[in-house]
Design brief:
Elements (H helix, E strand, L loop, with lengths): L2 E7 L5 H7 L2 H7 L3 E5 L10 H4 L5 E5 L2 H8 L4 E7 L5 E6 L14 E7 L6 H16 L8 E7 L17 H7 L6 E4 H8 L4 E6 L16 E6 H6 L1 H20 L1 H11 L4 H7 L14 H16 L9 H4 L3 H13 L1
Parallel strand pairs: 1-2, 1-3, 6-7
Antiparallel strand pairs: 3-10, 4-10, 5-8, 5-9
Helix pairs in contact: 1-9, 2-9, 7-11, 9-10, 9-14, 10-11
């Protein structure tokens, strides 16, 4: 009888989505008697586990805020891979605004979504850090602007379904009404917004990584697994990683197909995806433990603690478990 485990994937570019939707994940796991079950196909009461990790049999790939937050609160997700995929992080103003450069934000009102009924407000964390990074690039600090918190009472899954779709929120309403002067938006959603010519991109934080360190919720992207599953059924973890690596390597030879899949995953068109992600995205999907990735994740963990989002600073060096990735790479080499 096949055993089941759950997986959940954020709406960001990553290898897990390709693995799950191009058959690599099912093929690998079924060979050893396991069935992957997407978390969001379960009853809605389980969907919060995407954030809380209150699930002993869960893989998750995506934004780093929930796993860091959950770990700081006593959950035990195991970090089994990191990836730096530079999706666009944009500061947006109205097209008719007199704000032409980041330096012009001095004294202006910055819109911060404040989602008071969600498990962990990763959007709020991303917006605050995005603006702080942008301001720093112009020699400014958070004290040089006025922070306007825009309360949003919608829950994690406001429409009662697990399918996430992007729609400009209350922060964009505030921008339209002149209550704030600039907002933050990222990934394919940024290009969905910018197709409306009433908005203008002030800066893309990932465009010049020599002068800006664009650490944020999706920089880096992280792959984690429940500790109980990792400890008691380690080969499942190895096979999952092999499927993700296989998917990433497949993408290198199938750019157009990978692009179509990840455009679907990020809820944009292929053209919107192309504008939001670099042309060589398909070469960068493989999970790893690069020094740059580890450093960025530690910077992110420190930011979340410093801003009161987590209860402790997660030590990324001790959190990272390289053993599963090393085994996966070795077994793939032996297979080849």
């Amino acid at each position: 009888m096949s055993k089941e485990f759950n997986y959940t994937i954020c709406p960001v570019a990553n290898a897990s989505y390709i693995a799950a939707n191009h058959g690599f994940l099912n093929e690998r796991l079924e060979k050893i008697g396991y069935t992957p079950v997407r978390l969001q196909t379960l009853e809605q009461e389980h969907w919060k586990e995407h954030f809380t990790y209150e699930n002993d049999r869960l893989f998750r790939e995506g934004g780093n805020t929930p796993p860091i937050w959950a770990k700081s609160r006593g959950a035990e997700p195991v970090l089994i891979g990191i990836n730096l995929i530079p999706g666009q992080q944009a500061i947006v103003v109205r097209a008719d605004s007199d704000i032409k450069t980041v330096a012009d934000l001095k004294g202006k009102k910055i819109g911060i979504p404040d989602r008071i009924n969600v498990t962990i407000d990763h959007q709020k964390t991303a917006t605050i850090e995005g603006f702080e990074v942008a301001l720093k690039s112009a020699g400014l600090s958070k004290d040089d602007v006025e922070w306007v918190y825009i309360v949003d009472e919608k829950p994690d899954y406001p429409n009662g379904t697990a399918k996430w779709t992007f729609k400009p929120g209350l922060d964009f309403e505030a921008l339209d009404e002149g209550k704030v002067d600039a907002v933050f938006v990222k990934l394919s959603a940024s290009e969905i917004v910018l197709e409306d010519k009433k908005y203008r991109k002030l800066i893309n934080l990932v465009a010049d990584q020599d002068s800006v360190d664009p650490v944020n919720n999706e920089w880096p992207n992280v792959l984690t697994v429940s500790r109980k599953l990792a400890e008691e059924e380690p080969q499942v973890v190895v096979e999952y990683l092999k499927a993700a690596i296989q998917a990433a390597r497949w993408a290198k030879d199938h750019k157009d197909e990978a692009e179509a899949l990840l455009a679907e995953q990020t809820h944009g068109t292929v053209e919107q995806y192309r504008r939001a992600y670099p042309a060589d995205f398909y070469k960068q999907l493989e999970p790893n433990f690069s020094e740059a990735g580890l450093k960025s994740l530690q910077t992110r963990a420190q930011f979340l603690y410093d801003h009161g989002f987590t209860k402790s600073v997660v030590d990324v060096a001790s959190w990272a478990n390289r053993s599963f990735l090393e085994r996966a790479l070795k077994e793939l080499e032996e297979e080849e």
